[in-house]
Amino acid sequence: MATATGPPDGTEADGVADAGRTREDGGPTVAVFDDSTRSALYRRWLPDTFEVVAVRSVVEGRRVVDASTVVALVRHELSDSKREAIADLLDERSPLVRTVLTTSRHEPVADQVLDEDATLCEPIDRDSLRQVVSQQVAMASYGRLLVQYYECTARLSAREVKLRGDDCDDERYQRLESRREDLAAGIKTLQKRLSAEDLRSVLYEIAPPEHERAAREREPSTSGKYRPDGCRSCGRDWNVNPDGSPAGYRRLGAFVWECTDCGTLHDRSDPANQRVARRR
């Protein structure tokens, strides 16, 4: 009896639907935190395979946000206190949720409260909304499938130890093995849909490297989970501008930022890139 290992290439399956489908007869849920009427528009624009729910208050959020919520659309123009309450709600009710920041501005904004995974700036049209949300749903589903896969693998290994190789036809073992194969197939399907950067981003969030875990322990509670507090080259504080507004950097990719003052690149996903030479 072979011990289960990491996810193989597997066969194709509908991994997105499987990972997000936790409510009866429903698909992955997209929660829209927006005081305007945009939630109704987003509901019409997004695919029918997504359940879109409008959340107008944190109290309401506690009733509708659960493990099926894979993506949250949060309006940047909401008050700091409300966005902070939303962030706490998402961490509590759906820790692996992907957050998309929407803004009425025409360029990305720095958010001191939310750790956004993507940003949608005006003008937000149907195609851009569908593209960004669909990508984030796929990334969320991939992360959840990975967590489920390794939890299943751990149970399968424990069952093998208990059986000591004497009973390959054990019903519980067979159920676990079948579940592991289904999860591996879903993982393989999503790996084909996502870029290498997307895959790295999801893995990084599930199990950040040791140097990043240590960095998080040292960061103040007001800073982002991943973004550095400032530029190591010129010393620019990325949390606040002299006029009180947050700025000082541009996000170029997953865990990669550029200082808008001196052009230095910062890549937090690779310990070898913690001190990157200034862009020429």
Question: How do the strands and helices of this protein lay out in sequence?
Answer:
Layout: H1 15-20, E1 29-33, H2 38-45, E2 51-54, H3 58-64, E3 69-75, H4 80-93, E4 98-103, E5 118-121, H5 126-163, H6 171-193, H7 196-206, H8 210-218, E6 249-253, E7 256-259, E8 265-267
Parallel strand pairs: 1-2, 1-3, 3-4, 4-5
Antiparallel strand pairs: 6-7, 7-8
Helix pairs in contact: 5-6, 5-7
Short account of what is shown:
Helices cover 41% and strands 14% of the residues. It has helices at residues 15-20, 38-45, 58-64, 80-93, 126-163, 171-193, 196-206, 210-218, and strands at 29-33, 51-54, 69-75, 98-103, 118-121, 249-253, 256-259, 265-267.
Structure report:
- By secondary structure, the protein is of the alpha/beta class.
- The chain has eight helices and eight strands.
- The strands form two sheets. The protein has a five-stranded parallel sheet with strand order 2-1-3-4-5, sandwiched between helices. The chain has a three-stranded antiparallel sheet with strand order 6-7-8, with no helix packed on it.
- Strand 1 (29-33), helix 2 and strand 2 form a beta-alpha-beta unit.
- Helix 5 (126-163) packs antiparallel against helix 6 and helix 5 (126-163) packs across helix 7 (196-206).
List keywords for this structure.
five-stranded parallel beta sheet; three-stranded antiparallel beta sheet; alpha/beta; 8 helices; globular; disordered C terminus
State the helical fraction.
40-55%
Q: How many H/I helical runs?
A: 8
The sequence of SSEs as H and E is: HEHEHEHEEHHHHEEE
Major β-sheet profile: 5 strands, parallel
Distance between the termini: 56 Å
Mean pLDDT: 76
> Given the helix and strand composition, which structural class is it?
alpha/beta
Shape: globular
Task: Assess the beta-strand content as a share of residues.
Answer: 5-15%
Strand order of the largest sheet: 2-1-3-4-5
- Round the Cα radius of gyration to an integer and report it: 21 Å
Low-confidence stretches: 1-25, 210-223, 271-280
Kindly state the number of beta strands. 8
